[in-house]
Amino acid sequence: MDVDVKSLHPLEVKTLRHVKPGEEITTKRLVDELSFKIGQCNQAFSWLAGKGFVDEARRVQTVVYELTELGKSYAEQGTPEERMLELLTQSGPLTMQELTGKLGLENRDTGSAYGQLSKEGVLSMDDEKRVSAVGEASARMKAVRRVLDKAAGQGEIEHQALDDAEQKAIEKISKKRGASGVPFKLSDREEIVYTLSEAGAAARDELFKKGVTGEEIGELTSEMLSTGSWKGKSFREYNIKTPPNRVLLGRRNPYGEYLHWVKDKLTSLGFEEFDGPLVETEFWNGDALFMPQFHSARDIHDVYYIDKPSHAREIEQPYLDQVAAAHENGWQTGSRGWGYTFDRDFTRRQILRSQGTVLSAKQLPEAKVPGKYFGVARCFRYDQVDATHGADFYQTEGIVLGEDVNLRTLLGLLKMFAEEIAGAEDVKYVPGYFPFTEPSIEVHIKHPELGWFELGGSGIFRPEVSKAMGVDVPVLAWGLGIDRMALMHLGLNDLRELFSPNIENVRLRRNQ
């Protein structure tokens, strides 16, 4: 044989010895029968496939719902709806404020639970604003409870394991990305089923012939030497003729070079650069951008909270009062606002900024009119990492202020970013929605391998944003994924390659 079976990794040895020619090999089988972990299964398959010892038999697509931390608490303690119904059944009518206090929930959770249950005829409110239980748990509530119970044991459940009612219920409480605010995270999985190849079957026979079990000792420790426990044991063989790694000369990181190139280009066009801290408050990250504190619009900005200190001491005035008034009644903007009581404690909560637009909002009080500004901001957002998404990423943000700027000006800027900075040939503009701009526009580009994807959002700041910051002229704003622009510019197919520890990837030549 070309491969010395004694040098195979124990994971490879155990896998080859355990399966017979013609049998299917799956991750689940190795976990159940050999007590492998998922990562060990992936390693074993990767190594065996690389040596030609296994062949791909087929691929199985599955949809899996994983319990989030919130989902685990719901499974153990009950959902807000279940807890509310149980409390009202035992105590009798209570006000919304009393319900919130007794259940330890936030106002938005209490309001959402009541709204759903009142639609289903489970709860009702009298003229004195007291909530009463008028029915039993709805069919939807029971379906949600069944799903939580089924998933509680393994931490996840497959779509095909649910009945029709359960599938319909879980669709409303699961998300693919940014799932920290819902009980379930939805994942699309593809499992590869393998079988032994002819070479793999031959290697299996050789393992049995030479008595290689996978239990051989791979590391000789000082403890083994002192106790003599190494005696009578078998050791793994190593190839001492393996050549050492090449010494690679240092060079600039291509993505770092690209970021500097973008900054140089924008400053040459007359833009001034702004910057800010990584830790921000909910005020600047969302409230100043007219994102309501209770609204689902914040779901796309799942944030990482700071533990200590959890809150800033204060928010700058008069911006706090003006933004609060804009949320509550529109202030002096001509708007009716969102019509709720602004939470001045919540707005001081400290987080890692989830979007670069926070820098644009903070720049408004200091901006010159006319003026144009930009920044390259590192952002943090709970997200499923894939070829076009990351939990730690960069955005380029900017604003242009002036009496004469308009939508045509904005489209020209977006065209420059897409074609000149990203290097895209196919560009399209799609209407979008952001709480802080009207109109709102998304710019999409076509990657030769990944196809169409969103480059970012833009629009004209609403007066609730600009006037509350002391600006009374049109303000163009954009927030574009500079990581995604680099994908096109550097000729890559995966965002993760920008931050790869692989020296060969780091040495990629930037496309000019």
Describe this structure in words.
With 512 residues, this protein is of the alpha+beta class. The protein folds into two domains: 69-187, Winged helix-like DNA-binding domain superfamily/Winged helix DNA-binding domain (Arc Repressor Mutant, subunit A), CATH 1.10.10.10; 255-506, BirA Bifunctional Protein, domain 2. It has 19 helices and 17 strands. Helix 6 (96-103) crosses helix 7. The radius of gyration is 29 Å and the shape is globular. The model has no long low-confidence stretch (mean pLDDT 87).
Question: Main sheet?
Answer: 7 strands, mixed
Number of strands: 17
Contiguous helical run count: 19
Spans where pLDDT lies below 50 across 5 or more residues: none
Order of strands, widest sheet: 8-12-13-17-16-15-14
Which features does this protein show?
about 500 residues; Arc Repressor Mutant, subunit A; 4-stranded mixed β-sheet; 2 domains; 7-stranded mixed β-sheet; alpha+beta
Secondary structure topology:
Blueprint: H1 10-18, H2 27-34, H3 38-50, E1 54-67, H4 69-77, H5 80-91, E2 94-95, H6 96-103, H7 107-119, E3 123-125, E4 130-133, H8 139-152, E5 156-158, H9 164-171, E6 174-175, E7 184-196, H10 198-210, H11 222-227, H12 254-268, E8 272-273, E9 279-281, H13 282-285, E10 304-305, H14 319-328, E11 350-352, H15 357-363, E12 371-380, E13 392-401, H16 407-421, E14 427-431, E15 437-447, E16 451-461, H17 463-466, E17 475-481, H18 482-490, H19 503-506
Parallel strand pairs: 6-7, 8-12
Antiparallel strand pairs: 1-5, 1-7, 2-4, 3-4, 9-11, 10-11, 12-13, 13-17, 14-15, 15-16, 16-17
